[in-house]
Write the structure tokens for this entry.
Amino acid sequence: MASRVIPSSQCGLGSLLWLYTKKGIKDLTNTLVWTSSKTTTSVKPRPPFIEKGNGVEPVKGVLDFDPSAPPPFTIGEIRAAIPMHCWVKSPLRSLCYVGRDVALVLVLVVVAACFNNWLLWPFYWVFQGTMFWALFVLGHDCGHGSFSDNKRLNSMVGHLLHSFILVPYHGWRISHKTHHQNHGHVENDESWHPMSEKIYKSMNDTSRKVRFTAPFPLLAYPVYLLYRTPGKSGSHFSPDSDLFQPSERQDVITSTLCWTIMVTLLVFSSCIWGPITIFKLYAVPYWIFVMWLDFVTYLHHHGHQQKLPWYRGNEWSYLRGGLTTIDRDYGWINNIHHNIETHVIHHLFPQIPHYHLVEATKAAKPVLGKYYREPEKSWPLPFHLIKNFVRSLRQDHFVSDAGDIVFYQTDPELFGSSNKKLN
């Protein structure tokens, strides 16, 4: 038996809003035909728990459920519950979403440039940054092959969308594939995986506080692309990185070249229209996009009230790892960022197009049972998720170096009294 370690204007925009409904996009398609080691204890399987002070307590109402136990169903049973049409990819429909998002990005640029009013710039930054995030998700679908079955079309659209927002398409695509194939594994997972206790203790106090203090984690993505995360080496821009196989070298070079061309275009544009203009039109929305990306992806893997397991060795499996992801509700933003909030089914079956994820999730829930964690319903804007994010940063710091099933532990000294107060 494996050991389980318990942790101590209205300017013509209105006419485009109909496109943000599923009916709108379908109609358009038809028209176009992460304490000390002394607190680590190995025990028998136990019910789920939440952190309380420096200890844990059971979650009320689910005492009969252990989220780290092997599920009583197979991935094949989940697959069988999902309607066959949910697996069908429509290149035309996918391209319609691209056209919709690109059109709105261009409209926002024109409106902002025409008015050039400091009262309106903050609204532009938020809206445009959110649209940059939407473009990323569509490029993300290209990387998974859920955009279409045509690899050349996926690569072309993926490069155009991701290069525009300074993401090296193939470099990211390959590392993201590694993330999906190893999610929930302490050592082998690629993004937002927990630090081991040894790595955490090797960091200085400043590095720890920066990593776990908002808003710094929300600015992490460009750093991750350049240097990856603590305990891992390599760069998404280098074909010689540990991330890649020799056969992937040319793909990485191509994506880095596309990224370089976009940077060159931004510099050239700054020389023509001025750096302040490019800063307002592009740079600020870019950082809003980065914050969206880090916020959403972090909360897909952290911040649930019920502590979720991480695995090592033979305890890990693709299914058990995928079941530790968390669905979220972002209100009206769900459709803007292409249903990426339905993350459990996406993690298990990344081939399913985003426009079928909601239906696929509903169909799979009876099979998943308590392994599916119903997301808290959002108001039109997902302000409720901020508390989940901040709480997780205060509590989810590292996992034990020992044990095949481990949970996040808290360093009570990291934030001192503020951390104790939060608990």
